[in-house]
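PROTEIN DESIGN WORKSHEET
SECTION A - STRUCTURE
LENGTH: 295
TOKENS:
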């Protein structure tokens, strides 16, 4: 039996290089857990991968004696590589899951990365349909579709904790960009309206935060937690009464001046295949490729 509003324990981990928050989410009654958006360290200058950050997640799992059942991706990220495969190899009870919209994202990028969309979809253990329910121990979990940033974007509600992925950021940071292929500001607005129907006390955990520089007088360290009520009152891009037209105008003006994420090319190559690294060449070396003039 699952409990709709069970309080789950949330252990946040900030990946400073990419401003990403990864989470270990646990039901304390059963010690079953999920890991959300785990980051793989990648040094683009040296082409080096390491697992120091993912190891911290694993250390938390071991210290808390958790049984991880899910490795959840909110979407195919374009700003960091996922550690889902590496963790999956060490957590045999865990399924790697993402939204069914990943198929569309894979089809979009298949030509540029010479990806076979069928085998790529199989690299995930589970593709959630909209509003699919699952359990983390006694806590009820729901895969809530939040397309707009990307077509495959999901938010995960686990007990009373909502993991927004790239939809809502902290109230003073606003919302995620909508200018990637398949992105759509109107769609994101509607996705956020759906999140705003949740109880105001719902705890909200964001996927990214970079903090604020002290120079603007409102400096703060990176943060990860807020509530639906706080978002509705104070989100700088979309409050309770913001109109769709207002949001679209603001979002599109902002997206027009954003540069491509620094790690978009390596991230997509790895993340579209659930974190599987490229197969080694005959010389035993793995290569990531850089398509020219495609992004
Ligand atoms: Fe993203």
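SECTION B - SEQUENCE
RESIDUE ASSIGNMENT:
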């Amino acid at each position: 039996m699952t409990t709709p509003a069970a309080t789950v324990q949330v252990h946040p981990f900030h990946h400073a290089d990419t401003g990403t928050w990864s989470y270990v989410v646990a039901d304390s009654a059963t010690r079953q857990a999920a890991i959300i958006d785990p980051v793989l360290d990648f040094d683009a200058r040296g082409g080096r991968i390491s697992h120091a950050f993912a190891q911290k997640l694993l250390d938390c799992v071991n210290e808390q004696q958790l049984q991880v059942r899910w490795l959840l991706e909110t979407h195919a990220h374009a700003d960091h590589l996922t550690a889902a495969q590496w963790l999956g190899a060490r957590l045999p009870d865990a399924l790697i899951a993402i939204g069914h919209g990943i198929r569309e994202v894979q089809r979009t990028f298949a030509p540029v990365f010479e990806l076979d969309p069928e085998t790529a979809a199989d690299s995930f253990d589970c593709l959630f349909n909209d509003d699919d329910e699952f359990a983390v121990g006694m806590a009820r979990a729901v895969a809530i579709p939040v397309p707009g940033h990307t077509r495959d974007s999901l938010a995960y509600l686990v007990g009373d904790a909502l993991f927004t992925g790239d939809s809502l950021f902290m109230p003073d940071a606003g919302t995620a960009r909508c200018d990637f292929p398949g992105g759509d500001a109107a769609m994101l607005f509607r996705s956020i309206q759906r999140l705003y129907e949740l109880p105001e006390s719902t705890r909200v955990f964001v996927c990214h935060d970079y903090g604020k520089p002290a120079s603007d007088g409102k400096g703060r360290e990176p943060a990860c937690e807020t509530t639906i009520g706080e978002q509705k009152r104070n989100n700088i891009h979309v409050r309770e009464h913001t109109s769709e037209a207002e949001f679209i105008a603001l979002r599109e003006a902002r997206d027009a001046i954003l540069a491509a994420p620094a790690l978009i090319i390596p991230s997509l190559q790895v993340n579209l295949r659930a974190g599987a690294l490229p197969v080694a060449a005959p010389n035993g070396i793995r290569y990531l490729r850089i398509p020219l003039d495609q992004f």
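SECTION C - NOTES
The first strand starts at residue 9 and ends at 15.
The first helix runs from residue 52 to 63.
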